[in-house]
Design brief:
CATH superfamily: Nucleoside phosphorylase domain
Helix content: 25-40%
Distance between the termini: 16 Å
CATH class: Alpha Beta
Number of strands: 12
Oligomer: single chain
Order of helices and strands: EHEEEHEEEEEHEHEHEH
Number of helices: 6
Shape: globular
Strand content: 25-35%
CATH architecture: 3-Layer(aba) Sandwich
Number of domains: 1
Length: 229
């Protein structure tokens, strides 16, 4: 049976992924696990915490139990052209604010020569998720500080022209997955525009409902990557 680990930041996202599945609640390596048996295989969902560091630590602990695939999932901000309430699946993730602030603007860790900040998602998992959920594809940037101004949104778009969505955990989960050799993907349901912070305009309920629907479709039939679906 295929084993899929899904890492969310908070309980509302976890509950959206597991909605209608009556998960059993247990623990693995000190983490609370919500476990369901689905037509796709075994689904384990954890709240990894907010931000890339918490996500990386939690995912690393959980992945010791052995999984075939791991996904970072939750709600997030959408860049221009991405509708609120829609879905984005990552073809790549980028650590968008790891680097140095200079008089000439932000310089990424990669440009400083300290290491990569952009990482590809597993192409087969990407294709499966996109086909089953209808999610659009693009780069999902990971930030430690959520964007709250038009200026920062414009800078992110300039630095990452293919950015479709913003989250806070994807790179952390990806780095943990890479260490364990587990195929990685990220799925975000869009709750707001990336830009000036306006909580009154956020559609969190709609995004969580979209996340539930996405996993209903994703898990409705067996996951057999590498063979015809």
């Amino acid at each position: 049976m295929v084993r899929l680990l899904v890492v969310t930041a908070v309980s509302a996202e976890r509950d959206a992924v597991t909605a209608g599945r009556d998960p059993a609640i247990g623990a693995i390596n000190g983490l609370e696990i919500h476990r369901s048996v689905t037509p796709a295989g075994l689904l384990d969902v954890i709240c990894g915490g907010v931000g890339p560091v918490e996500a990386a630590v939690s995912a690393s602990c959980a992945l010791r139990a052995g999984y075939d695939y791991v996904m970072s999932a939750g709600i997030g901000g959408g860049f221009d052209g991405v509708e609120v309430g829609s879905l984005v699946v990552a073809d790549a993730v980028a650590h968008a604010d790891l680097g140095s602030q200079t008089a000439d603007g932000f310089v990424s860790m990669a440009d400083l020569g300290w290491g990569a900040v952009r990482f590809a998602a597993d192409s087969r998992l990407l294709t499966l998720v996109a086909e089953r959920t209808g999610a659009s594809r693009g780069c999902i940037v990971t930030v430690s500080t959520a964007t709250g101004t038009a200026e920062r949104a414009a800078e992110l778009s300039r630095l990452h022209p293919d950015a479709a969505a913003e989250g806070m955990e994807g790179v952390g989960v990806q780095r943990a997955a890479a260490r364990q050799g587990v195929p990685f993907g990220e799925l975000r349901a869009i709750s707001n525009r990336v830009g000036p912070r306006n909580l009154k305009a956020w559609r969190i309920g709609d995004a969580l409902a979209a996340l539930t629907g996405a996993f209903d479709r994703l898990l409705a039939q067996p996951i057999r990557i590498g063979v015809p679906q």
